[in-house]
């Protein structure tokens, strides 16, 4: 669609023709309404997920139980309600790691203390809110945004790998994000020194609790990518699948185009080739993904979100890794490989 070429709040001949084609005079009259009127009508139709945030998360690949349960966590964080936020975590078994900065906490009390120090420094209008939820209340990937000023001058767009206990309390949370959106120089200032990075991401403390289907798909995909067997990888995708690489700012649609891209760019992608492997799998039969590791290349780790169709095929693949590890030449190369001829 060619958006942004027609004036907001007025009607062009093309708009009127479209309206007539789909509904006659009533639709044509509706097309004369300004954009704000449409927005107002939609707003009255449903409540905000997090108060003060006009974003409703995509929950098409998550259970209703996860959507309902995790909502309070983000509201508590946005409200700077420390006791409420920390009530979502297990006191008995606790891991929180930022896989991009190397920050890590292995005790509930330590995280409580850290947040108590951060809260007073956050801007008054700080918000943390999910944009996509994958999985269930056993394990999930939570895609969410922390607004600027909470953890640095830039916004942080996270993919959180989260495991819950049988009571719905969080036992392990690991965040992955691209620091180029945050600011590379700011990332360099904030990250832990090399000798203080966690060497154990503690996936063994929660075990592999993802659904058998998600584990099979993740294992098969990771193995195909490790051996650079693109044909085998593509057997796992649906015909109209979407492939996304967040740091490279690439989105490719259709199995054929994804196949062509991976064939051309595979050797340059950090999650393809020898040395890559699965760290931990999360999710259920419709949504989740896996944390991965990579040795021998510039990018040591990342996460891949997977959305499955009703036949268990991948209909959306989203790779997230720290783009600051890649130089401009690599990112340019990845973009060039997406050009179809």
Describe this structure in words.
By secondary structure, the chain is α+β, with helices and mostly antiparallel strands. Helix content is 33%, strand content 26%. Strands 1-4-5-6-7-2-3 form a 7-stranded mixed β-sheet. Strands 9-8-13-12-11-10 form a 6-stranded mixed β-sheet, with helices on one face. Residues 1-45 have low confidence and may be disordered. The chain has 11 helices and 13 strands. The protein folds into 3 domains: 13-41, no CATH class; 63-205, Roll (Nuclear Transport Factor 2, Chain: A); 212-337, Nuclear Transport Factor 2, Chain: A (Roll). The radius of gyration is 22 Å and the shape is globular.
Structural class label = alpha+beta
CATH class of the largest domain: Alpha Beta
What do we call the CATH topology of the largest domain?
A: Nuclear Transport Factor 2, Chain: A
Rg, Cα atoms, Å: 22 Å
Architecture of the largest domain, according to CATH? Roll
What number is the mean pLDDT? 89
SSE pattern? HHEHHEEHEEEEHHHHEEHEEEEH
Principal-axis shape: globular
When the domains are counted, the total is 3
The portion of residues assigned to helices is 25-40%
* Low-pLDDT runs: 1-45
Biggest β-sheet strands, sense, barrel: 7 strands, mixed
């Amino acid at each position: 669609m060619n958006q942004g070429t027609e004036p907001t709040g007025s009607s062009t001949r093309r708009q009127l023709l479209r309206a007539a084609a789909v509904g006659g005079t009533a639709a044509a009259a509706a097309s004369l309404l300004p954009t704000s009127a449409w927005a107002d009508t939609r707003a009255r139709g449903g409540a905000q997920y997090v108060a003060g945030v006009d974003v409703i998360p995509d929950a098409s690949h998550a259970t209703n139980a996860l959507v309902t349960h995790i909502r309070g966590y983000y509201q508590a964080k946005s409200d700077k309600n420390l006791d409420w936020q920390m009530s979502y975590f297990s006191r008995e078994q606790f891991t929180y790691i930022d896989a991009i900065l190397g920050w890590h906490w292995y005790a509930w009390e330590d995280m409580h203390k850290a947040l108590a120090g951060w809260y007073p420094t956050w801007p008054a209008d700080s918000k943390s809110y999910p944009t996509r939820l994958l999985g269930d209340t056993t394990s999930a990937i939570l895609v969410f945004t922390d607004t600027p000023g909470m953890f640095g001058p830039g916004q942080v767009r996270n993919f959180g790998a989260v495991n819950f206990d049988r009571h719905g309390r969080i036992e392990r949370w690991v965040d992955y994000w691209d620091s180029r959106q945050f600011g590379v120089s700011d990332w360099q200032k904030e990250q832990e020194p090399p000798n203080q990075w966690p060497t154990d991401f503690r996936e063994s403390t929660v075990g592999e609790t993802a659904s058998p289907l998600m584990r099979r798909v993740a294992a098969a995909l990771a193995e195909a990518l490790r051996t650079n067997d693109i044909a085998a990888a593509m057997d796992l995708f649906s015909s109209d699948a979407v492939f996304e690489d967040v740091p490279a700012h690439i989105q490719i649609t259709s199995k054929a185009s994804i196949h062509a891209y991976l064939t051309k760019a595979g050797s340059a992608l950090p999650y393809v080739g020898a040395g890559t492997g699965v760290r931990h799998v999360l999710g259920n039969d419709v949504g989740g993904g896996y944390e991965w590791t990579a040795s021998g290349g510039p990018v040591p780790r990342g996460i891949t979100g997977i959305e499955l169709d009703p036949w268990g095929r991948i209909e959306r693949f989203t790779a997230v890794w720290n783009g600051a590890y890649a130089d401009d030449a690599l990112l340019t190369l990845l973009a060039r490989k997406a050009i179809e001829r």
